[in-house]
Amino acid sequence: MASDKKMLDRPPSEDPLQCETIEDIGAIEDEATVKRINRKIDRRICIVLGVLYTIAVIDRVNLPLAEGNAYSLLILCFFPFYIAFQPVMTPISRKLRPRRFLSGIVISWGLVMAGHGLVHDWRAMLALRCLLGIFEAGFFSTSVYLISTWYIRSEVATRNAAFYLVGVFFAGFGGVLAYGLSRMDGVGGYAGWRWIFIIEGIITIVGGCLAYILIVDFPEQAAHSWKFLTEEEARIIIERVERDRGDTIIPPFELWPYLANALDWKIWFFAANFGLTSTVTYATAYFMPIILREDMGFSEVATQCLSTPAVAVAAILGQFEAYLSDRFRLRSPFMIFNAALIIIGIILLGFVEVTGVRFFGCFLIVGGANANIPLTLTYQANNIVGQWKRAFCSATLIGAGAVGGIIGSLTFRSQDAPAYRPGLYTCLTAGALVILSVLITTAYFAVSNKRQRQGKLIIEKMDGFRYTH
């Protein structure tokens, strides 16, 4: 491929291994200029996508707040469509460009959310949940893919953390918002739960309209995205990414080569990391309020308020770990640490009788799981080469996350109260399997890098490329 040839012809001073940090690449371009351009990108991509993800999370998890405990079927019907439409969404976003694609699907699911509050038949509600799964299928995978195209490998963790954890942090206040909206019961003849969907649907539509103005497209289109970057600034970004991993040149889309990426076993380990971690994040998002209310005896208002501090701790922990991860170019130690936090938290929550200790266990579970999400995204993005492979990986990763959502939504059942042993054992197993998966891939990466340094191996068909682990 053209990009491979270009990498092989690169002089030694531009070896990607030697140009992995802002400091290294900033020595080739002016470091202050690189940081200034990155701040522009952060504002127009990470922050905007983080706000949209906030809306997505609130829209997705407000169903139990609106419907009470009889919501399992409505939760489950969302995921099959969310999973099924993952593989096609990233190529479509490439064709339509992210600004059009993301704003379009956000507006669409906003209309669907508002419709939740207007229907009067459960079958219509099921149909709307299916549509919501289709429209939301393209958001997270496209966002992850878009972020990975703009930054070099040693900058991605902090950006993934900013995008994801901004959304999770502010979505932690979604329960308070939903509780306030439910107080509108009787206004206009609508029940309070209907107003939750209607108002949040309107907010989503407004967010989608703003996204059309604010979101930018891929780096090679940057100079034409509402005068976002100058031609010179766009050139700097493209050249930095090209030196780092050599995949800025995108070949024409071909279906079978795209699907052939599934033959790379590492992709499925990356997906497993995300899916297993998502099992825990979904389980806690859906059922921690139930455990706090029904098992620990907190009131409804206290339950909504007590869920927020755990998410705030997760956001702080995740951003701090992402900073250290980028600074030291390490991913796996932090992922293993977070999985260990999940395991310890589950033990405290499920097998200790003191309420304060159990509540502290909730902090560890929520913190470890949510802090691990951006790291699993980065671990995958750092260790693949090629635009279409990157797109395929984003789809498989988010699809696996949806499978985790199905498991997480089923694992804490009301009939298992008050101990909730099946749910606790499921999350405990998920945390242990993440550790095992990361150890396997990290060992493989370490051996491959050693062979590459000895001149015995070319990794990912790119001369000079080494895995990040």
TrEMBL record:
<dbReference type="GO" id="GO:0022857">
    <property type="term" value="F:transmembrane transporter activity"/>
</dbReference>
<feature type="transmembrane region" description="Helical">
    <location>
        <begin position="69"/>
        <end position="89"/>
    </location>
</feature>
<feature type="transmembrane region" description="Helical">
    <location>
        <begin position="423"/>
        <end position="447"/>
    </location>
</feature>
<protein>
    <submittedName>
        <fullName>Retrograde regulation protein 2</fullName>
    </submittedName>
</protein>
<dbReference type="GO" id="GO:0016020">
    <property type="term" value="C:membrane"/>
</dbReference>
<feature type="transmembrane region" description="Helical">
    <location>
        <begin position="193"/>
        <end position="215"/>
    </location>
</feature>
<feature type="transmembrane region" description="Helical">
    <location>
        <begin position="45"/>
        <end position="63"/>
    </location>
</feature>
<feature type="transmembrane region" description="Helical">
    <location>
        <begin position="161"/>
        <end position="181"/>
    </location>
</feature>
<feature type="transmembrane region" description="Helical">
    <location>
        <begin position="101"/>
        <end position="119"/>
    </location>
</feature>
<feature type="transmembrane region" description="Helical">
    <location>
        <begin position="301"/>
        <end position="320"/>
    </location>
</feature>
<dbReference type="InterPro" id="IPR036259">
    <property type="entry name" value="MFS_trans_sf"/>
</dbReference>
<dbReference type="InterPro" id="IPR011701">
    <property type="entry name" value="MFS"/>
</dbReference>
<keyword id="KW-0813">Transport</keyword>
<feature type="transmembrane region" description="Helical">
    <location>
        <begin position="358"/>
        <end position="379"/>
    </location>
</feature>
<feature type="transmembrane region" description="Helical">
    <location>
        <begin position="332"/>
        <end position="352"/>
    </location>
</feature>
<dbReference type="Pfam" id="PF07690">
    <property type="entry name" value="MFS_1"/>
</dbReference>
<keyword id="KW-0812">Transmembrane</keyword>
<keyword id="KW-0472">Membrane</keyword>
<feature type="transmembrane region" description="Helical">
    <location>
        <begin position="267"/>
        <end position="289"/>
    </location>
</feature>
<feature type="transmembrane region" description="Helical">
    <location>
        <begin position="391"/>
        <end position="411"/>
    </location>
</feature>
<feature type="transmembrane region" description="Helical">
    <location>
        <begin position="131"/>
        <end position="152"/>
    </location>
</feature>
<keyword id="KW-1133">Transmembrane helix</keyword>
